[in-house]
Design goal:
Layout (H helix, E strand, L loop, with lengths): L12 H48 L9 H11 L9 E11 L2 E16 L3 H11 L3 E11 L8
Antiparallel strand pairs: 1-2, 2-3
Helix pairs in contact: 1-2
Length: 154
């Protein structure tokens, strides 16, 4: 007696496997692109805010005048941030007139801003929290603006 074995067709196996893995793959790739895009947008926005605040400080502070407090600088920065940012995640510090690198006779204001940008996709949020212990991505930038020549007295 001979036994015959039937081989099953495997033509649909690859499609089924792809249908099972495609949502996870898209979540990883598209979710990463979304989070990276938001983080990139937020760091560019943060840089622009730092530059604008430093320029306002340099233009508005008279020579020998009182420097604004850290609270005032933070209020200036918060007035410029996008409406969907949470104010508690934005901090600002300033350094009183500093020497501009490459220009030893010029002074300016340096503003340092930090912002904790949230991670929007659950997968990357979980991965980042597991690695760093934080559910947000800390961003930091600084803006320096030279005091105009007619105000730059020592």
């Amino acid at each position: 007696m001979m036994y015959q074995t039937r081989t099953r067709s495997r033509q649909g196996q690859a499609i089924v496997e792809m249908a099972m893995l495609l949502p996870f793959f898209l979540l990883v790739v598209v979710g990463g692109m979304i989070d990276f895009g938001f983080a990139f947008y937020n760091v560019v926005t943060l840089q622009q805010i730092a530059d604008d605040v430093a320029k306002e400080l340099a233009d508005a502070t008279p020579p020998g005048g009182t420097l604004p407090s850290a609270t005032q600088v933070e209020a200036m920065a918060r007035a410029k941030n996008p409406s969907w940012w949470t104010d508690s995640n934005l901090t600002a510090t300033t350094q009183a007139p500093v020497t501009i690198p490459g220009f030893p006779n010029d002074r300016g204001f340096r503003v340092v801003l930090t912002y904790d940008t949230p991670i929007y996709t659950p997968l990357w949020g979980g991965v980042f929290k597991r690695i760093s212990g934080k559910s947000y991505l800390p961003l930091a930038t600084q803006g320096t603006y030279r005091i105009p020549k007619h105000l730059n007295r020592h």
